[in-house]
Amino acid sequence: GFHVFVTLLRALAGFERPGKGRIALGGAVWFDSAAGIDLPAHQRPVGFMFQDARLFAHLDVAGNLAYAAGRAGRRGGQRPSGPSYDDVVDALDIGPLLARRAGELSGGEARRVALARTLLTRPALLLLDEPLTGLDRARRGDILPYLEQALAHFRIPSLLVSHAVDEVVRLADHMLVMSEGEVF
Q1: Sign of the alpha-carbon torsion through 14, 16, 20, 21
Q2: CA 140 to chain centroid
Q3: What integer is the mean pLDDT of 24-35?
Q4: CA 121 to CA 88: how far, in whole Å?
Q5: Cβ contacts of residue 98 below 8 Å, gap of 6+?
Q6: Which terminus of the chain, N or C, has less C-beta within 10 A?
Q7: This model's pTM is above 0.90
Q8: Residue 1's pLDDT band (cuts 50, 70, 90)
Q9: Average pLDDT across the chain, whole number
Q10: What is the 3-state secondary structure (H, E, C) of the chain?
């Protein structure tokens, strides 16, 4: 049953193609099987934060963030509005990490940098696939306030998939509970 949520995130991002249906945000249609519309993933204004940080190990933190900011400028040829570099760095308190290599970061630090990188793509929709999974309770407790603050501060519509009820209760305005493909 849980894979249904991950499949939903992947379909919204354009990583998987639904058999039929329609995906739209605001006035923009990303997928419409009847109309033959299927916008490629790289053209959808979606920020996807995966379970693992997926940082570029050969770059320092500043390089990882610069890559994301550059990606935002390439999407659709027009730079979307969104959080500034300085605002994201300040909100997630990663200024002291900018010169460090991705491989030198703790698990919690890497997740904060991954969230910053995702926000800097200036997404219209933020998709979070179990962003705190694999972290011990202390590390989850360290990063949860940053995630909560970022979601509240930047006000980007977000979908969070998580097994951790405490995370969902703390971060979500609305909750959808599913079991074996059925919504409760």
Answers
A1: negative
A2: 17
A3: 95
A4: 11
A5: 60, 61, 62, 65, 89
A6: C
A7: no
A8: low
A9: 87
A10: CCHHHHHHHHHHHCCCCCCCCEEEECCEEEEECCCCEECCHHHCCEEEECCCCCCCCCCEHHHHHHHHHHHHHHHHHCCCCCCCHHHHHHHCCCHHHCCCEHHHCCHHHHHHHHHHHHHCCCCCEEEEECCCCCCCHHHHHHHHHHHHHHHHHHCCCEEEECCCHHHHHHHCCCCCCEECCEEC
Q: Which two tokens stand for residue 10?
A: 């992947």
Higher pLDDT, 124 or 74: 124
Contacts of 173 (CB under 8 A, 6+ apart): none
pLDDT range class, residue 80, cuts 50, 70, 90: low
